[in-house]
Specification:
Distance between the termini: 62 Å
Radius of gyration: 23 Å
Mean pLDDT: 89
Low-confidence stretches: 12-29
Order of helices and strands: HEHHEHEHEEEHEHEHEHEHHHHHHH
Helix content: 40-55%
Largest sheet: 5 strands, mixed
Strand order of the largest sheet: 2-1-3-10-4
Number of domains: 2
Number of helices: 16
CATH class of the largest domain: Alpha Beta
Number of strands: 10
CATH topology of the largest domain: D-Maltodextrin-Binding Protein, domain 2
Structural class: alpha/beta
């Protein structure tokens, strides 16, 4: 009896020790996670690889506790990084170029490029089976913010089609993310929309996608992750782990079906059903929206600079090697 009682006491003691040890390890693991505050330009299925990295726990695997905030516009993302409310900004690459051109003493350095095509679509109020960009002449179009990548890429496409933007009534006064609601309310003959707004307008019968700006513009370095050079210099290992997590998301997207991708990222879009998410992912997947790696090439950088100059918002030369660092992206695929 005494021996059995002693064994039970010892077993209980060991169990308590194991529980305490596990709790201690868990707390230690939590302590080891480093917080990174990321501000994204929009919350869109367009950025599926990033959400895969979040939902599959790749950031945690890399020791990062990611705090994600949506800025609703590149200008607001920039402001968040400048103020210190964000460590990393995810936005159009034009923002880092503007900061350099304005004489910033602490450059925004792009260290990972996520998308290689525009992610928005031209939505018409009526179905148009044989749409041509010349159909926009004289019409009212709800566009993007003046000087922002969406608007400049739209104008870039128009010029490729031999159309001057001045021939179209482009409304650039509506806040980012509010154009779909304005269109539903009766404003404009056409609107330029990201997902899920484009599909939502189609589903409600209030609009019809007639063109993909991503297809018609060709490959463009649309969105990238950037941080102040001082932050990168102070946290190179953290930036590497951050980039590693993103690359895992890119790898998943490259090796899985749209249906599988949609299922993973569905928690990020609780107001959108999985079938709709799948439709949107498929649309982006089929037009090769995402790169297989995160390397921001000089050729891509030169293209966005040319687009800015052509739009009349940039009149100085901008050095690639001061605003882009491919080291982290290159290491992430080794």
């Amino acid at each position: 009896m005494k021996k059995n009682l002693l064994r039970r006491i010892i077993s209980c003691a060991l169990a308590v020790v194991m529980i305490v040890s596990l709790c201690a390890c868990s707390k230690q693991s939590e302590k080891e996670l480093t917080t990174v505050k990321l501000n994204e330009v929009a919350h869109s299925i367009f950025y599926a690889p990033m959400y895969v990295a979040i939902e599959n726990g790749y950031f945690e695997e890399e020791g990062i506790d990611l705090e994600l905030t949506t800025g609703f516009g590149a200008d607001k993302v920039m402001a968040a990084v400048i103020s210190g409310d964000a460590d990393v900004g995810f936005m159009g690459t034009e923002s880092s170029i503007y900061a350099y051109a304005e004489g910033s003493s602490d450059n925004f350095c792009n260290f990972a490029q996520l998308t290689q095509r525009a992610g928005n679509f031209l939505v018409s109020r009526e179905p148009m089976d044989n749409f041509s960009y010349s159909d926009l002449i004289g019409k009212d179009v709800l566009g993007g913010r003046a000087g922002g990548t969406p608007e400049m890429v739209f104008e870039y496409i128009l010029k490729k089609q031999g159309i001057s933007p001045s021939e179209i009534n482009i409304d650039q006064s509506i806040d980012f993310g509010a154009t779909a609601a304005a269109f539903s309310g009766g404003q404009g003959d056409f609107t330029v929309e990201f997902e899920p707004s484009a599909t939502a307008l189609e589903s409600s019968g209030e609009g019809y996608v007639v063109a993909s700006l991503g297809v018609d513009s060709g490959y463009v370095p649309y969105t990238a992750f950037s941080a102040r050079q001082s932050y990168i210099d102070a946290n190179p290992e953290l930036i590497q782990h951050f980039t590693n997590a993103l690359q895992k998301g890119m790898d998943y997207v490259s090796t899985h079906t749209p249906e599988e991708i949609a299922t993973v990222i569905a928690p990020q879009f609780p107001d959108t059903d999985v079938d709709t998410i799948t439709t949107i992912v498929t649309r982006y997947y089929d037009q090769q929206t995402w790169k297989s790696d995160l390397i921001f090439t000089e050729q891509s950088f030169d293209l966005i600079v040319d687009i800015l100059k052509d739009a009349g918002v940039l009149d100085v030369d901008v050095p690639y090697d001061q605003l882009v660092d491919t080291t982290f992206a290159e290491n992430a695929i080794k």
